[in-house]
# Entry
Amino acid sequence: MRQLLLRPGAEELTYEIRGIVKKARQVEALGYEMTWENIGDPIQKSNHVPDWMKEIIADLLKQDKTYGYADSKGVLETRKFLAELTNQNGGAQITAEDILFFNGLGDAIAKLYQFLIPTARIIGPSPAYSTHSSAEAAHANTAPITYKLDPDNQWLPDMEDLYLKVKYNPAIVGILIINPDNPTGMVYPREVLEGFVKIAEEFNLLLIADEIYQNITYNGITAVGLSEVIGNRPAISLKGISKEFPWPGARCGWMEFYNREGSIEFSKLCQTLENAKMIEVCSTILPQLAIPRIMSHPEYRAYRTRANAQIGKRSEWMAEILGEIPGIKFNPTQGAFYNTIVFDEALLHPNQKLPIEDPRLQALLDTWLTDATMPLDKRFVYYLLASERICVVPISSFCSDLRGFRVTLLEENEEVFKDTFRRLGKAIQQYLKS
# Structure
């Protein structure tokens, strides 16, 4: 080309959650059926959208207004409805003007980092959700900055690690919290969230909370929203309906701005995000119109309670099947619908294998394993694909020095779920013993 096309940092935009699909499709092309555990899509795993929810959407499709533009910031009635839900928690109070809709949280995250100056860094958790870590790294033209989540302490954050990194890196202007967490399934206790706020106050930082799984908790755990502990600090909460309804194909998410006028710089950022949305005109209107009707429906709370309980039950099945296998560790899942399994790294080496009977699969696998620097958890993931046709995501792809993999707790069919994890457990044991 006449000139370089990519800005520095663009190559940091990676997404192994979907990238692993390319390998899995190669296995499918050989005539094998794949078990998908790589992505949090409830619909893909036999989740049923309730008929009453479908009726609401069908009714909206009959109305002409559904086919027009929304307000640039989002449907006003929906923003008022969501503001009231947040205000009922008794913390930071917002109005409809403090809510801005996007075409999914991926869109919101990209916009947020797009308008930060490259020298302004947002520190996030590790393991990290790829959309956040990749976008932050791409905007800064360098690797993401992270604080540790501790697998030996229920995946809670290492607050000393966070504090020291913030203290000695003045480029850090904000802290990202993912609560409930993806990929670990951990839910932050109130006192930990208050610890984040305390650090933000000391160093005058912005807080950003990805709370898309906030209403997906179970086993006696309830998530505390950032608005409940934020006080007068400037903050952004990222929310959406993709997992909760579930309606991932709606691509509907929003930002809530807390204490917008508490900082001139934060107020300018909020206004810039709104201006960017006005240039686009608006986000998709149908799911916005559906939100108040669905969330205020008399069956909605009971539906969410049942769905959460089912995820909690599957987390117990997973623990029963994998809990006694030596060489791995994981924590009880509290929220979202993921779990992260970590290997004892002393037991991993580059010569481990799983049996593969089909020479076509072996030949395919050999092409995947040519990189001598490949993290050892990714090597296991590739063997699992070829041997058991189970697609998971290596934790090294979540901006982590740990070695392991993420699974989902979404499969509705009990027999299929248990069979998947039994096969997974057998593969782990065979691999570590090889």
Q: What stands out?
A: Residues 10-48+301-433 form a domain with the Aspartate Aminotransferase, domain 1 fold (CATH 3.90.1150.10). Residues 300-322 form the longest helix (23 residues). The mean pLDDT is 93. The two ends are 49 Å apart (CA to CA).
